[in-house]
Every structure is written in structure tokens, then in C-alpha cells.
Amino acid sequence: MPPITTLLFDCDNTLVLSETLAFEACAELANEILESQGKSDRYTGHALFTEFVGQNFRGMMTSLQQKYSLDLPPAEFDKYVTREEDQVIKKINAALEPCMGADTELERLAASGRFEMAVVSSSAGRRVEASVDKVGMDKYFPRSRIFSAATSLEKPTSKPDPAIYLHACKVIGKQPGECVAIEDSKNGTLSAVRAGIRTVGYVGSYEPEKQDEMKSVLKEAGADPIMVDWAEFAACLDKIEKS
């Protein structure tokens, strides 16, 4: 295998604790849509997270349209996507925090000068930019190194589609084999693995009672090794480099 030159980080619940905030906003809009279409079901943020973790709002709403046979014209669909971005960014600016230990590890990696680093996310570019800005990670990830499946591609998509990872590699000028991804979800892991990228699984953002289950989920999706704490990342990277 070629030497590792590039680290590709998922954002939500990998670098920053944004999923709870985001799914609260998603649930508010999903319930508004269901009510407007005469559907009686309602979602909590937690229920949406359980069913759709790793997907962006566009992918989530596409799934809900199919599940409930919703009639949302493309223009109306796009308006909801924009509203979701606005509401999530508002919550991010008010309350977002980094994942424990992530900033310390990014600082160490940046100081080493060994790797190029980028963010590869399903979330909208504006949301990812707001996230890294809020927690001060913009010094590691300039705008040219933030890639969004929702907004960076000619045709918007969502993980587990590998398109956004392949796009990021192309723009940065790297082969998938010289990259390592860090992912916390099944869909994210599948996206990276299907792009031919070795992947470290991260379960530290899950509740302790959920971590063992998620280790199995990520391992089955192709992540290896898997870490609970960012302090383990150096050892995980060393394992991959020696494999």
C-alpha cells in the first residue's frame, strides 16, 4: 500500500458534537412537512437520528418522501433544504462544542506537518463551515479543504454514496489508497470504504451504552481500527501504516 499522505475527517459527531442539534432542527421541519401532507406520524430528533444517522437532510427527506408517499415539488423541497441549513446553523452558532480531544489531536497533526487534512461531509457546505468556524477548527480546514456531498458536487448526494470522497481526492490530487478517513456512522464508513479509502471508526460521540454496538456496526461496514477517544488516533494510524 502507498504511504499515507492525507487525512479526511467526517465533521458531524466526529470533529464536532452537531448531530443532536441538527436532528432537532430536522425533526421540526419533517413534522411540519408531515402535517402539511396530512400525515399523523411525528418525529423527535432522537428518532430521526436513530433512523437516518450519517445522511444529510436532502437524503433524509428523500427517504421520508418514499416512506410516506409525500408530494413535494422540487422547488418546495429545495426551500425546506435551505430552511434546514439556516435553522441548524443558528443552533450551531449558539451551542456547538467540539468532540472531546479532537482539537488537541488536530493541533498535534498540524504541528507534525506529515499530512494534508480535509473535511468530507454529507452536510451542506455552509453548515460545515459554520461548525469549524464556531469551534476554531477553521485554522486546520480552509474553505478549499471542506467538501460537502450536499453542495460540492454537480449532483447533490449523501453518504453512503462514495462520490464525495472520490471528489475530494480528485480536487486535492491524491489517490484513495494514500488517504485515511475518520468516520462515526455506518453510512459514512461505507462511503469511504467504497471509495477505496482505509477508514478509522470513531464511537466516542455515542453514549457509553451504545458504543459497543456501534463498534460492531462500523467494523461490519469496513472500519478498522476503531477508537473511542481521539487520544487513540496516533496508535490507530500507526496500525494502518504498518498493515
From TrEMBL:
Keywords: Carbohydrate metabolism, Magnesium, Metal-binding. SUPFAM superfamilies: HAD-like. GO terms for molecular function: metal ion binding; phosphatase activity. Its cofactor is Mg(2+). This is HAD-like domain-containing protein.
